[in-house]
Amino acid sequence: MGQRKASRDGDRKVGRRALLIGGTVAAAGSAVLARDELARLWWRTPGVEKPREAGAVDYKGARWVAASDANWRRADRPDDFGIDMVIVHVTQGSFDSAVKAFRDPGHKAATHYIVRQDGHVTQMIRELDVAYHAGNRDYNERSVGIEHEGFVDRPQDLTDEMYEASARLTARICARYDIPVDREHIIGHVEVPGTDHTDPGPHWDWDTYMRLVRRARTTPA
User: Fold this and answer.
1) pLDDT digits (tens, 9 = 90+) for 1-13
2) How far apart are CA 141 and CA 130, in angstroms?
3) Is the peptide bond before 220 cis (omega within 30 degrees of 0)?
4) How many of the other CB atoms lie within 10 Å of CB of 110?
5) 183: left (phi over 0), alpha (psi -120 to 50) or beta
6) Cα-flanking dihedrals φ and ψ of residue 73, to 5°?
7) Is the pTM of this model over 0.85?
8) pLDDT, tens only, 104-130
9) CB of 142 within 8 A of CB of 131?
10) Using an 8 Å Cβ cutoff, are 191 and 199 in contact?
11) pLDDT greater than 70 at residue 15
């Protein structure tokens, strides 16, 4: 979440552009692009609903608490948008306040996961869906966002239990989508182009975190 409330990410508008995809794009000789765009819009077609299991989680051991559907949008990742990044956040507040914010439709932002200081993991958005968390549409579509309970200016908030639990979570995400375990693909919110956020802040121990992710990546789930 960083040092101020996350900005709202614009959603894909389906209007005249979508209606003209078949004609305009095909006329340009780009039928493949038309098919790709239509595939990304399947979930907006009236009456179309991909089967979902209520309360299902992508990470074993996580607890499901649903974010408001105003804070994410339905997708079919990685089939429509490839996932190649994990983005690390710090809540700038308590775990409970982050959950409350992500369930509030007026907040207009949420991450897929929140990791508590004791290592408990809560999932609020399915990985196949696009969470509004990065402040950058392209990065939202290609990433999984993980919040961590605490404040960026309080190193004591970044507990060993939190690092270890988050590292196991990130390792499983990287394994699932074949994401390289490096700092080009596991980044902080502050590193997202165009953002004005500072999290995870100067006290986040990237060396320790990446070492833990690499270790977890080679450990059977």
Assistant:
1) 654 444 445 443 3
2) 6
3) no
4) 28
5) alpha
6) -135, 145
7) no
8) 999 999 999 999 999 999 999 999 999
9) no
10) no
11) no
